[in-house]
Write a structure and sequence with these properties.
By secondary structure, this protein is an alpha/beta fold. It has 16 helices and nine strands.
Length: 348
């Protein structure tokens, strides 16, 4: 039993199944959901009769749209610290993602439809990540005044060349073929075969079963764009990237430049620095860095303004603290990387 119907647990043979059950919110994760899942994952990890764990999202719209940022916005007046909803959510979410990543048993995420933010964290950090023809993967945090987190500091470095930087700074949505090319997802299975896949996983070895069901997702569009992406996003600053995109005579570059011009300027500068510092980090180091950045972000105003503009009032007219990346000073960037002292994220 759990304290919430927003996440459901069941067993089918040797397969343990968690179903994110907030379809109207595209299964956005709440603190209670993380707490329930954490306790259940611990129990499944100790249970010798559990051969594999599967996580999926209810409804047709998607696997998981991320964390419940509306609840975080509602807690904006409380200072960060123990007992504060937003502080506890990020701390417990990141620790849970680390458990997913280090789970000794096969972990399979069925990432259909919208798979964004925290949904990427729940899938990409596990061993097996299944895409379908409806999959849309994105980390759009720069549009709400935040940074790509849930291990993005590590997993964007799995992408070929500078594609991780491109995805982080533009929030671009990618489908199955590109997500697999980038290493974010591992297998492609048609959505009408997910039920059969689940039944087969209950009876057979996870890797063998996934290989039997998997098909080709088709060619990656990003693979063809990689030389141009590397040329533009390998520049030494956000401003230089924007200059390179402006000079690039291509539709993809115009779309990327337009997306970055909509994003929070501070988020762009923080994300660029975050990814440069994150090269070679393991997941624990990545999450600790992201937690530090997030706590500093939550103490400011841009994040709440971004959530207001995109998700609450939906006027799409955020009033950022700075008007452009050029206005965000080196000191402003560096203060977000300042240690939190006893408030740092640690893993027992």
């Amino acid at each position: 039993m759990t304290d919430t119907d927003d996440i459901l647990f069941e067993r089918r043979g040797g397969l343990a199944i968690a179903t994110l059950n907030r379809p109207r919110a595209i299964n956005a994760m709440t603190l209670d959901m993380y707490r329930a899942f954490d306790a259940q994952l611990e129990a499944w990890g100790r249970d010798a009769s559990v051969a594999a764990v599967l996580v999926r999202g209810a409804g047709e719209r998607g696997f998981c749209a991320g964390g419940d940022v509306r609840a975080i916005h509602a807690a904006r007046r409380r200072p960060p610290g123990p007992g504060d909803y937003k502080t506890d959510l990020y701390r417990e979410e990141y620790r849970f993602i680390r458990k997913v990543h280090r789970l000794s048993k096969p972990y399979v995420a069925l990432a259909h439809g919208i798979t964004m933010g925290g949904g990427v964290g729940l899938s990409t950090n596990g061993r097996y990540r299944v895409a379908t023809e409806t999959t849309e993967v994105a980390m759009p945090e720069v549009f709400i005044g935040s940074i790509p987190d849930v291990g993005a500091t590590r997993f964007f470095h799995m992408c070929p060349g500078r594609i991780g930087t491109y995805l982080a700074l533009t929030g671009r949505r990618i489908g199955a073929a590109d997500a697999i090319y980038c290493g974010l997802l591992t297998h492609y299975v048609r959505q009408d075969r997910l039920a059969a896949l689940t039944e087969a996983l209950a009876e057979r070895d996870a890797e063998t079963t996934l290989d039997r069901f998997a098909e080709s997702p088709g060619p990656s569009k990003l693979a063809a764009l990689r030389p141009a992406i590397d040329r533009c996003f390998g520049r030494p600053s956000v401003e230089a990237i924007l200059d390179a995109l402006h000079a690039e005579d291509a539709e993809w570059a115009w779309a990327a430049m337009t997306a970055m011009e909509r994003a929070c300027p501070t988020s762009l500068k923080l994300t660029f620095r975050q990814l440069r510092r994150g090269a070679g980090m393991d997941l624990e180091a990545a999450l600790a860095l992201e937690y530090r950045l997030t706590m500093h972000i939550l103490a400011g105003d841009d994040f709440y303004e971004g959530v207001r503009a995109v998700l609450i009032d939906r006027d799409r007219r955020p009033r950022w603290r700075f008007a452009s990346p050029a206005e965000v000073s080196e000191a402003e960037v560096e203060r977000h990387f300042a240690p939190l002292g006893e408030g740092e994220l640690t893993f027992a």
